[in-house]
């Protein structure tokens, strides 16, 4: 327990040091996946890192706006969701001259009073709210302050307001690609079970669940190989010890690859995977990161990370106000917009460089990239990357599109149909 706690704390320290330097990085868009197919550097698979089409370029003068970025209760240091939000805000500060204030609520009970306090102040051109937990507080506050603009990231209130934009992600698209690669890795490791360690039972995780299971079932359909699937909610994004415990339980249930979808909680799962390898060197288990590139944390056991570009969403929201291009309503970001995908090796290297400069890893960035690249080539066969490219192009071209469930019952029905092999149950458009 003590060793796990020290490890988690060390990672948090690295996060605080590292993330401060990351914003300068996300202003550019490049390409190249140093694996059998192409992705973005250092962003996601095969699409340009752009904002959504609703944020078209304008020639109008950029206004220097005052922005409040309000994290969820987990705050900074999760090496994923909240930290990525920080990156997008820092990009807006650099590119748009925005003045940013970062705020973290003390608890869920503090969220609505805090939001009302910020709204009453009249200080901010836009208040950017990070995460699903802000949905109810915003619904109870937005109508009281019609002149205050709000951006809700990764959720929607379900209400159309002139002063609110909701920016969502098509997580299914990212998770489906991960499901393909996880399945191939499990087989290469000599098993046939993949798992996910998830945070709370909330709509963004429903979409991850649908996409991940879809990718696994798509892999089964295309290869004829049977893959067992485990999904476990932990109920928290902030408990590394619980992540360790549940991660070890999933391994004992046969999981050979575990996808981390629980913020700080799944950092504990990374530790479980590492400890398992020490105790069972002939029964290797691998992990998959999410949101930020997390390979550098343990390059021997984390060959890939899914990308959920919260930074792109935050920047998009701030840019709308700064350029006078405010468009309320719902915006979604997926593969086509560069909002989700899989981190390429250039992205891995960039995060590794920052960790190395912070003296938190003894491995050089080149060594980390080399290890990750070797692990990818060892455990992810060429045919799996080809399946990823095939599915990715169907998504980007609009040939297929995923459903987004609006109720828990609808979500559960889609999962049940997928478990029964009905891939089309997850699709709103097209068929497999």
Structural class: alpha/beta
Q: Please state the CA-atom Rg, rounded to the nearest Å.
A: 20 Å
- Which regions are unreliable across 5 or more consecutive residues at pLDDT < 50? 1-6, 10-59
What gross morphology would you assign? globular
For the biggest β-sheet, the strand order reads: 4-3-5-6-7-13
Q: Report the sheet-strand fraction.
A: 15-25%
**Largest sheet entry:** 6 strands, parallel
From the N-terminal CA to the C-terminal CA, the straight-line distance is 46 Å
Which oligomeric state applies?
A: single chain
Helix-strand sequence: HEEEHEHEHEEHEHEHEHEEHEEHHHEHE
Number of helical segments with 4 or more residues: 13
Average pLDDT number: 87
Helix content: 40-55%
* DSSP summary, beta strand count: 16
Helix and strand layout, with pairings?
Elements: H1 2-19, E1 30-31, E2 40-41, E3 66-70, H2 81-96, E4 99-103, H3 111-121, E5 126-130, H4 135-139, E6 149-153, E7 164-169, H5 171-188, E8 193-198, H6 203-223, E9 228-233, H7 240-252, E10 257-261, H8 265-279, E11 286-291, E12 304-308, H9 310-322, E13 329-333, E14 340-342, H10 345-357, H11 365-379, H12 382-396, E15 401-402, H13 408-419, E16 427-429
Parallel strand pairs: 3-4, 3-5, 5-6, 6-7, 7-13, 8-9, 8-10, 10-11, 11-12
Antiparallel strand pairs: 1-2, 12-14, 15-16
Helix pairs in contact: 2-9, 5-6, 5-12, 6-13, 7-8, 10-11
